[in-house]
Each structure stands twice: as structure tokens, then as C-alpha cells.
Amino acid sequence: MLTIGKLGEAAGVKVPTIRYYEQIGLLPEAERSSGNQRLYGRRAMEQLAFIRHARDLGFTLEAIRDLLSLSDRPDQSCAAADAIARAQLAEVESRLARLIALKAELERMVVQCAGGRIADCRVIEVLSDHSLCAHDHLSVPKSVDASLALPASTSSSN
Amino acid sequence: MLTIGKLGEAAGVKVPTIRYYEQIGLLPEAERSSGNQRLYGRRAMEQLAFIRHARDLGFTLEAIRDLLSLSDRPDQSCAAADAIARAQLAEVESRLARLIALKAELERMVVQCAGGRIADCRVIEVLSDHSLCAHDHLSVPKSVDASLALPASTSSSN
DNA sequence: CTTGAAGCTATAGTTGCTAGAGACATTAGG
DNA sequence: CCTAATGTCTCTAGCAACTATAGCTTCAAG
């Protein structure tokens, strides 16, 4: 039986994050020691590693919740898990496409900045005048839009 | 003079977002009509477009605040603006590298999912067992870590 | 003149944590 | 056995960058 600190160390998740996962019901309530401290066994360890790994891949906590409940029913079809993973892949691809466009534009801005005065600065200029910029709106369909952020991937280590 | 709704429409920014920008001091306080409604002129329009565009490129509000104050002093060197843009480019590049790795792994997961039972599901399996996965930790140095999210880019339209 | 859209303020919610305060538990050293 | 240093507990508040809600006032059209 591990204390929360050891578990966090082992799984590469910070202690408050583990408590947070329990609080939102992503992890089951832990057993407690006589002194009211959380104790974890092998099962909790595996589940936390699963969560950590899925977060690393950019899955939302909601998606992970779904995946966990799926993995509790090993006899069902894995179509649902597949769908979740495919959706995640689609999101990543869309973020990727957008980031590539951003990179191109930032590079243009930076390269063209001759190091002169602000008044001539290409960076400020491009930001000020949309028509100077390559992509004509960068507009992303509304449905995809909320998905542009990658959930920050929990800086490894406890 | 435009009302807030027209301004938002013109700049592609939602009305509450404009008020939010004013609240946090990113936009100056707007003039008011006799009936206490905000009125905007050409200057505000340009500034909002600048902000919108910079947000599209993934700059944080803090970075934008800096860029705006720079653009108010056109005689200064543009080295600072250049530095901000370069930092942003570096961030985008790091997110990009990571997303590419994620995409590869998700593709592997999805392709290998044969559509059978959960018990054999490659998706669940890979998530459960870190050793099955290609990247050996995906660990990002702490300093870069907070920067993985792209700030969601304000879904165009008002 | 009335109705409906658009505006106002203020507050709370979102996601996925992270940080702090103040109190109790456990463990290592002397 | 005592003490000091950690570790853990709960609870609350904070971060970015908005978004949504409630309950009100103002405005433009018919």
C-alpha cells in the first residue's frame, strides 16, 4: 500500500492532482489509514498511469472518464473506444494544421523585421493590418474551434 | 461611432469579450453615449483588430499588452517586438513538435484497433501500458510545459 | 407607443489543475 | 521518548481567457 506521495512519484502525477482526480470522481475514493491518510494499491496505480498517459496524449478528462468506464467492461465492443481515439486524432490533426499556418506567418513576421524602429516594424505592421497577412482569416469552423488548445499535458514528474 | 455590437461584428470579436478586454485594461475605457452605452471610433476598431489578429496567432493577452504599448512608441527600436514574436514562434514550434508525436501515436492506436472486444482493444491497451507506446515519456521540460496550449483563437464571428 | 433587439452591470461557470493556510500524522535522528 | 522535519489532511482561492446567466435599461423600427 502506497501513500499518496509515493503513488504520485511512481505515476508521475503531482499529489494535489491525484486528490483532484478523486474529487471529480475520476479516481475512486481511496482507502484510508488509521490516521486518515489515503492508501493506494496496484489497481489505483494502474488507473492513474492510464489517466496520465491519456492526458499526455491530449485526451480531455471527460474523454478519459469514458475510456475508463469502457475499460471496465471488457466484453463490450471496442467501437466506442475507437471512436474516442479517432475524435482525439481528428482534433490533433486540426490543431496541427492550424499551428503550421501560424508558424509560417510568425516566421514571415520575424524574418522581415529588419531591426529598425517600431514605426517600420514588420511585426507590429502585420498585426495591425490584417490584409498584409497570408492566411485570409485563419477561420476555423465553429465546431472545431473549441478544440484548438492542447491540455497542457501535466509537466511530467510529481 | 459604433456601438459595441457593430464593433464586435466588424472585428470578429464577441461582445462580452470586448467588455472583458476593457475590464482587464487591454482596451481603454470606451466613450459612452447619453444612455451609457459604449461608443467606439476608428482607433478602437484598429486596436481591437490588432488584438484579434494577435490572438489568432496565439499570443497571450500579456504579450499583446506589451505589443500594444510598444506600438504606442513608434520611435523606439523594434527589438522588443521582435523578441516577443520570436518567443511566440518558438512556442509554436515546440507545440508543433509535440503534436506531431501525439498524432503518430494516436494513429498507431487507431489503426491497430481491429474493432473487436474491449479486452483486446489496442486503444485501451496502449493507454494502460506505457511500455507499449512509442515515445518514452513524451516529457517536456518544465519551462516549456505551460506553453503547450494554443489559446483557442476566439471562433471568428461576433 | 409598443415591442423586441441590443445594451448595461455583476456574478458565476468553464478546464485542469496549482498554490496557500492551518491542522494532524508519520518517520528519522539523537 | 522526544523533537524536528517532512508528509498529509481539508478547504479555499487563483490562473488564462473567456462564456453564460440574471435582471435591468436603452434604443430603433413599425
Automatic annotation (TrEMBL), chains A, B:
Keyword Transcription regulation among UniProt keywords: yes
Domain of life, per lineage: Bacteria
UniProt entry tagged with the keyword Transcription: yes
Positions of the HTH merR-type domain: 1-70
Keywords on record: DNA-binding, Plasmid, Transcription, Transcription regulation
UniProt xrefs under InterPro entries: DNA-bd_dom_put_sf, MerR-type_HTH_dom, MerR_fam, Tscrpt_reg_MerR_DNA-bd
GO molecular function annotation: DNA binding; DNA-binding transcription factor activity
Pfam families hit by this protein: MerR, MerR-DNA-bind
PANTHER family the UniProt entry points to: HTH-TYPE TRANSCRIPTIONAL REGULATOR ZNTR, REDOX-CYCLING DRUG-SENSING TRANSCRIPTIONAL ACTIVATOR SOXR
Name of this chain's protein: MerR family transcriptional regulator
Annotated source species: Tabrizicola piscis
